[in-house]
Amino acid sequence: MSNTILQPASFLMMLYGGAIAGIVYDALRLPRRLFAKGWIDFVCDLLFVLLALGICIISLLYASGGSLRPYLALAFISGFFVEQWSLSFLIFQFVYAIRSKLLKN
C-alpha cells in the first residue's frame, strides 16, 4: 500500500473489523451470563481470542495487503471499543427486555 489515498479506506476497514470483533465478544458474553461460571468462561475466552485474531488478520489482509501499520492497529482497537461503548449497550438492553418478557410468562 504505497498510495496515501487508500489509507483512510484502510483505516475504516480496520475500524469495521474491530467493531465486528466487538460483536463477536458480545455474542460470546451471552453464554457466560446465562450459564454457571467455570469451564464455559475458559471456552468463551479462548474462542474469542481465536476469532478476534482471525478477524484482525483478515481485516489486515484486505486493508493493507498484510502489512501492519500502527494506525491500523489503533483503528482495530478503536473499532472494538466504540462498539463496546455504543452498540453493545443497545444489544444488551434488547436482550434484557426480551429476557424479562420471557420470564414474566
What are the key terms here?
mainly alpha; 105 residues
Q: What layout of secondary structure does this protein have?
A:
Blueprint: H1 7-34, H2 39-64, H3 70-85, H4 87-104
Description of the molecule:
Helix content is 84%, strand content 0%. The chain has 105 residues and is mainly α. Helix 1 packs across helix 3 (70-85).
Order of helices and strands: HHHH
Looking at the structure, what is the overall shape?
A: elongated
Count the DSSP helices.
4
Strand-pairing-aware structural class: mainly alpha
Distance from N terminus to C terminus (CA atoms, Å) equals 57 Å
Tell me the radius of gyration. Answer: 17 Å
Which ranges are low-confidence, i.e. pLDDT below 50, for 5 or more consecutive residues?
none
Helix coverage percent:
over 70%
Q: Major sheet, described briefly?
A: none
The fraction of residues assigned to DSSP E strands is: under 5%
Average predicted confidence as pLDDT? 88
Summarize it.
This protein is mainly α.
